[in-house]
Write a structure and sequence with these properties.
This protein has 210 residues and is an alpha+beta fold. It has three domains: 67 residues, no CATH class; 33 residues, no CATH class; 91 residues, no CATH class. It is built from three helices and twelve strands; from the N terminus they run αββββααββββββββ. The strands form three sheets. A four-stranded antiparallel sheet has the order 1-2-3-4, with no helix packed on it. A four-stranded antiparallel sheet has the order 6-5-12-9, with no helix packed on it. The chain has a four-stranded antiparallel sheet with strand order 7-8-11-10, with no helix packed on it. A hairpin with a 4-residue loop joins strand 1 and strand 2. The radius of gyration is 36 Å and the shape is rod-shaped. The mean pLDDT is 92.
Length: 210
């Protein structure tokens, strides 16, 4: 790798061309060498090939400042002076300390600052008058057991029946009753005459506290 003092002397044309080419090669290769350039300038770069570290010369031209390390096998660059955040720093959402964050640290930060709601929807479903599921979450099946009566089966059994089920219906006028247990909820649709009737579209949402 070339290094140069970047001072082109008065010389014959062939020598000048060689000297200039050497200077340009040193410039484009960032003065790459296992030893530092003998002549330095403020702000110049040097790629130390002995330890694969990139340096920049200080403004006072009195020291080399490490910018980072190059991994020639992985073709990656790791900036210098940027330490990995500790777990405490990563979890502190008021910290202004900057640093590298690994996947482990990121997971710790998310876990420490995630807001868990008091209640959550564990299942919901929308179905047709025949019980055919149109869209759902956490529901394995809907069966119309009789006119106006549907059994909704949860994908995951609940530890108890202490949860809230809100049933809905479209295309009829009347009342809806929901009777939940640990594995299912029975929905009953009745018209204004108190007779069972099928809604054009039905649904329910199941919510429990955490």
């Amino acid at each position: 790798m070339a290094q140069h003092d970047f001072n082109i002397d008065n010389q014959s044309a062939p020598a000048f061309r060689g000297d200039l080419n050497n200077a340009l090669e040193a410039l484009v290769t960032l003065s790459s060498n296992a030893t530092a350039p003998a002549t330095t300038y403020a702000g110049m770069f040097w790629h130390d090939t002995a330890v694969n570290t990139l340096y920049i010369r200080s403004d006072a031209d009195d020291a080399w400042i490490a910018l980072g390390t190059l991994d020639q096998s992985a073709n990656t660059f790791a900036p210098a002076g940027v330490a990995e955040l500790t777990q405490v720093q990563a979890e502190d959402d008021t910290s202004t300390v900057f640093g590298q964050v690994s996947g482990e640290r990121l997971a710790q930060a998310v876990a420490a600052n995630v807001v868990v709601p008091d209640n959550h929807i564990f299942a919901w479903v929308q179905f047709s008058s025949t019980g055919a599921i149109q869209d759902s979450f956490g529901v394995s099946s809907v069966v119309r057991t009789a006119t106006g009566r549907f059994t909704v089966t949860w994908s995951t059994a609940q530890p108890d029946d202490n949860y809230y089920t809100n049933a809905s219906g479209y295309g009829f006028s009347g009342s809806i009753m929901a009777d939940p247990n640990t594995t299912t909820a029975t929905l009953e649709y009745k018209n204004l005459s108190n007779s069972f009737t099928n809604p054009t579209q039905g649904g329910c949402v199941a919510i429990r506290s955490l």
